[in-house]
Request: fold
Amino acid sequence: MTAKTLIIRTAGTNCDRELAHAFELAGSAVDTVHLNLLLKTPRMFEQVDVIAFPGGFSYGDDIAAGRILANRLRHRLLEPLREAVHRGVAVIGICNGFQVLVKLGLLPDPHARRMAQTVTLSVNTSGRFVDRWVRLRGDSQSPCVWTRGLSEFDLPIAHGEGRFICKSDEQLDQLRNNGQVALRYEAADNPNGSVDNIAGICDPSGLILGLMPHPERYTHPTHHPQWFRQSGTAVGTGTAGLQLLRNALDHTRQCKESAAVNCSSSGGSDA
Reply:
């Protein structure tokens, strides 16, 4: 069973083609749809297994990174999105997409009684746009389906507002205790000043992931700047970026197959 991914783009999005190519390499059918079309046909969410928010500068980030897109989604598409999440659809937000997810309130918890922004991604402590590769660590105790089996690896970043901030120490402790800190920068390689070196978080179920690094930009070993000096698992035959996407697709596929078996079993017994 082939999983179907819906990539949402709008004015200012500029990483949608790379993300579509990456998902196709990972084994998914992909449909890239402009927000305006989704506003007219929100039922499109009912036909997909994965929803992806790519990077870029949606609406020029004129108010704050991701704020305008998040507001448009909140006013017109929040319920269809929440229904998709309740149905078990995997969601990923990359860079600007991560900024959208936190401002929309889908992260850190889409099941909260009152969906509101509780964390943010602020201006890098350097005050500069940072564009380079970083070393990351995955949390083996996290429920995140996207990062399974990814312990230490490299991905590129490109952002000016990637500093992860919580409203309180209590909230940070809650994220840690729930295993929602799915990705951290190496302590010596924190590019933006994020609290606790946080590079990405997931929701309590592990189905929704937001991260600042770009997995779609590392889908072939030669994408790595040191590929010619490394071998084996150092750069990976499938690459960490591709594996991250495959993890979610494998999870989705297994769920669909399990559901099909259960339906067949119950159908046979009824006959």
